[in-house]
Write a structure and sequence with these properties.
The chain is α+β, with helices and mostly antiparallel strands and 411 residues long. Helices cover 38% and strands 18% of the residues. It is globular.
């Protein structure tokens, strides 16, 4: 694959990015990648401070807004996949790569009519006392050992997490173990995962079915049951072309220190190969995707979108995913270089992200600068490594967890 092929795949028209302009394809990608968290002109001034522009030429914010219209968001998705393909295999759990899946809601700007339009690319909107607001649903698959986002998608919030996950299953490998929380269980999803030959471990609501309640009352640590979908499930099974046939499912009991009980459903039926006692630690690995979402939304300010059209929102969403992964890879490489275990030591991911944003313009301008920047980046990340406290109690949840939502002018 050449850079010319890549550009031709991810521009809106054949004539785009063919002139010798200030905002080339690479520079537009770079500006979006360093995250637009401040005034656009300030971001552009900092980005181009590392570049030698022709005399009398400057990087103007209006010119950038026109240039980004020529760029497809798919460029960031393909770059992210290329980055992931070059990594070493991660640690496994009984030979399986643990992948956590989850979804989250994002607030969107509502000042552009296309954003709140009814088209396929638009997003839903609502009316409140404070005005109109728009929401999106984001769904992601996260490598539990590192926090890398393997695949992500964004759609209107009218889409449910299960259907978005179903569209992401092709991103899973046969040796993956998908871990999901209790918002996902459904007979059709169990059947679909088994039909695709993908392993899973999903937390169930305690009242999910009579069979689950009977298992809870039995006191067993583990049991294989047979699920028989009925006529009520016919529509969902038909949607995904699944036969309405019985299938086996294993239930695993996870007692908590609080005295409560969690029930997990898994496709791993062999008790000897996958002991029930190890599933508590396995399910705990799902928390990694919550940390990834927190980094994206609280540190990368994902919801403070600089653009307002559906295309611009998708550009910034996938650019933030790529930036998160680049910072995560740099942080993980430092741990490996220092011979430290990720279970006992944690790099400061926020600090690593800031450093990647800082050095990225220079690298885009001169890739050979990695020989100078690499040691500086690794040394700075190394100074911000802290020890983990695995038994540290979590802080109590705040009673008022209402999500703050600033007026659009706040940005």
């Amino acid at each position: 694959m050449t850079s010319v092929d890549f550009i031709s795949r991810h521009r809106q028209a054949a004539r785009d990015f063919t002139r010798r302009a200030i905002f080339t394809f690479e520079r537009v990608v770079g500006v979006l990648l360093v995250n637009l968290m401040r005034s656009l002109q300030v971001e552009l001034d900092q980005f181009f401070s590392h570049l030698a522009l022709p005399a009398g030429r400057s990087a103007n914010d209006d010119a950038f807004r026109m240039a980004r219209k020529k760029l497809r968001w798919t460029a960031f998705a393909e770059l992210n996949q290329a980055v992931l393909d070059g990594l070493n295999p991660p640690p496994t759990w009984h030979g399986l790569r643990v992948v956590a899946g989850d979804g989250t809601t994002l607030y969107l700007p509502t000042t552009h009519p296309d954003t709140i339009g009814d088209g396929a690319e638009g997003f839903n909107h609502y009316h409140a006392d404070s005005g109109i607001y728009s929401l999106a649903r984001a769904s992601a698959l996260c490598e539990a050992s590192s926090g890398l986002i393997l695949h992500a998608s964004i759609a209107a919030d009218t889409r449910d997490e299960r259907s978005m996950l179903a569209e992401q299953l092709d991103a899973l490998r046969p040796d993956d173990l998908l871990v999901l929380d209790r918002g996902y269980p459904a007979y059709w999803l169990f059947a679909l995962l088994q039909a695709r030959q993908r392993h899973f471990c999903i937390r169930l609501p305690l009242d999910f079915s009579p069979a689950v309640q009977a298992f809870i009352e039995s006191g067993d640590a583990s049991r294989v049951i047979e699920i028989t979908p009925g006529s009520a499930h016919r529509k969902d099974f038909a949607k995904y072309k699944l036969p309405l046939e019985p299938f086996a499912l294993r239930l695993v009991r996870v007692p908590l220190k609080t005295g409560q009980t969690e029930i997990l459903a898994t496709s791993l039926l062999d008790e000897k190969r996958w002991p029930a006692a190890e599933f508590a630690a396995l399910y705990h690995q799902r928390w990694r995707i919550e940390e990834a979402f927190r980094h994206l939304k609280c540190r990368l300010k994902l919801e403070q979108f600089g653009g307002e059209t559906p295309q611009a929102i998708r550009q910034e969403f996938h650019a933030a995913i790529l930036l998160h992964n680049l910072a995560t890879i740099a942080a993980q490489d430092v741990l490996i270089q220092q011979g430290l275990d990720a279970a006992t030591h944690a790099p400061n991911l926020t600090h690593a992200t800031h450093l990647v944003r800082l050095f990225l313009p220079r690298l885009l301008n001169d890739p050979a600068a990695i020989n100078e920047i690499g040691p500086l980046l690794f040394d700075a990340i190394t100074r911000q490594i802290t020890k983990r406290r695995p038994n540290k109690p979590a802080p109590p949840r705040k009673t008022n967890r209402k999500k703050p939502r600033h007026h659009r002018a706040y940005k």
